[in-house]
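Help! Submission page says 'invalid entity' but I think these are all valid:
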Amino acid sequence: MTNPVDILLTNAIVLTMDEKLTKFEPGAVAIQGDTLVAVGLEVEIRSAYTAQETLDCGGKVLMPGLVNAHTHVPMTLLRGLADDLRLEVWLMGYMMPVEREFVSPDFVRLGTLLACVELIRSGVTCFADMYYFEEEVARATADAGLRAVCSQTVMKYPAPDAGFYEESLAAARDFISRWKGHPLIMPSVAPHSPYTCTAEILQATAQLAVEFDVPLHTHLAETALEEENSRNEHGMPVIPYVKKQNLFDAKVLAAHCVHVDDGEIYTLMHHKAGVAHNPSSNLKLASGFAPVRKMLDVGLNVGIGTDGPASNNDLDMFEEVRLAAFLAKVNTNDPTALPAPTALSMATRLGANALHMGSLIGSLEPGKRADLILVNISPLHNAPRFRRDPNGLYSQIVYAGKSTDVSDVMVNGRWLMRDRQLTTLAEADLLVQAAEYATQIDLFLIKREKSVLSKLIAIGGATETESFEVQAKVRITDTESVLSALKKPEIEILHERHYREFDAYFSFDDPKQGHLRYREDESINAKGEVSNVRYRLTLLGMAREGHFPSDVLLSRSRFIAPATHSLRFYREYFKPVTETSIEKVRLRWRILFQGTEFFINLDKVIDPDLGSFLEVKSRTWSQRDAEHKAQLTTELIRFLEASPEETVAQDYIEIVETR
Ligand SMILES: [Zn+2]
C-alpha cells in the first residue's frame, strides 16, 4: 500500500542540509501541495509513495534553495551606476539622490522582477529584502512565485515613499497587517540603520515588529566609522546602543555586523538575532571582515547575503558562498576556518534561521515547504567527481559550482524554472524597460555632475538661497587704529565675536562654477578657549553683480549650508581640480553706522601669510539700497581709518590665486 502524493523527484543526490548534513544517494523526495512529505533513499521513497508526476533528476544534486539573507532587490536598476566610492559618498552622494528622483512603485516593481529572474536563475528560493514601496516588492515577488521577507524601510531622512518617518512607520504597519499570513511573503519592518534612524525610530519599529510578531531587518555595525561615531555620540558601540533602544525585543535580522567585539557577539546570540554576512559588499566597500567564525562558534545563525545589486554588483549566491568561505580563511589565517559544508549551511539552513524562517525552509525535511533546486555537478568546470571524501559534494558546489549549473527551481511546490526555462517571468521585456530607466538616470546624473550647485543641492540639508552683499575688503597694516575707531560714539556695537577659521577652497575646471568653501569656525571665548565649532559649506560665485566707486562690490553669495559630512566626503564627492587651505584669526562685529547694519571683519590671515584685512559687509536686496550702502561702506572704511584705495579681491582664495 503506497501513499499518493503530487510529485516524486527521483534519481538525485539529495543534500538535505539538515543539522546532521544527511545525504541520500540515490535519493528521492515526495511532495504534496506546497510541502515536503518525505525525503530519503530512492528505494524507500518509491516503495512508500506513488505520484501523479515523477521526475527523474538525472543524477543531479537536489538541495534546498539558497537563501539570500540580505539584499535590496529593486536596486538591480541602479547596478553599476556609481562604483569605487566610499560608502558614505556612494550612499549619500549617489544612491539616495537618485533614489529620491526615480524610485516609484513602478521602478520598484520592475527592479524586483528583474531581480527575481536573476535570483531564480541562480538557485535562490528565498531572500530578505529592504527597500522603499516594499509592498511593490512583495507583490512582484509573489507574482514571480518566490519567497521573501519584505521589509519596509523607516529612517529619519525623507525617503522616496515618505516625507517623514511617521509616514513610513504608518505605511509599514499597514503593509504588515495586510500581508501577514501570505504563503510566500513575510512582511517586516526595516529601521535602515542606527545612523540613519533616531532612538525613537528604533524603539517604534521594534514595538511594531513585536506587536505583529514579524522580523525586524536592519544594518548594524557595517563600518568602522559607524562604530566610532556610535562611541562618540552615544558613549557605547552599536550593539549595546540598539539594545538600549529595545531593538532586540524583536526578532532581529542584522545585516553586516562587521565591527562587533566578543561581547557584542554574545549579545546578538543571547537575543537570538540573525546575522546576514555580505562578503562582496564588505569587500567592495572596504568595510572590513566580519568575525564569522566566532559568530558560528557561539551558535549565532549567520546567513549569507549579496546586499543590493548596486554594491555587489550581482545577486549571485554561488559567488557569495565561495567568498564567505575564502574571507573567513584569510581573516583567521586558517584554511580550516570555514569549510565548504558550513559555508553551504550558511546559505541554506542557517540563513533561513537568521530570517526567523527556519521552521519552514532552509533544509529538506518532511513538513517543510517544497523550496528546492537541482544543480548539475558534472559540467566540465566541475569534473571529475571524487567519492572518497564525504564532504566532496559540498566542495564541488562551493568551490567549483556556478549559478548557471542550477537547472530547476521549485518554490512552495511550484516550478519556477525547468531545465533553465523560466515559467513565471518574461526576461526580454524586463530588460527593455530597464534600459529605458538607465537612459533617464544617466541624463539626470550627467546634468547634475556638470553643476557644483546642483551636486550640492542633491546631497540635501539646505535649500538654494541667494543673498546679495555690498562689500569691500582692504589690506591694512595698522589694526590698532581700527580697534580704537570702533570705540567712537558714531558706532554702536550690537555683537562681537572671535573666531579661528580653517577654510578649504575647492576649485573646478570651469571657473563659472565658482569656488566651494568648506569652513571650520572655532568660536573663541573671553578666556581664549574654543567654545563652539561650526562647519559650513558655501558656494561662492565668481561673477560680480555690480561695482561701485572706491572698489566697493556687489556680490552674490549663492548658497550656504551646514556641512554635515567630513571634508574628505566633500573632496571625494565634488572631485575638485585644486584645493587650497587658508587659516585665519577673525574678529567680527555686527554694528550700526548711520542707522545701517554692517558686519565688520578684522582678519589676520596666518596660513598662507597674507597679512591683515578689514572687511565691511552689508546685506542688500534692491539696486537703490545697494547704491546707498555702497556709499556708506566707503564712508565707514574711511571712518575706521583704513584706506579704500587698497581694495582687494573678494575672497582670500582669489588673493592666493593671483599672487
Ligand atoms: Zn544593505
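Support: the input was valid. A stray whitespace character was the problem, and the output above is from the cleaned input. The two ends are 100 Å apart (CA to CA).
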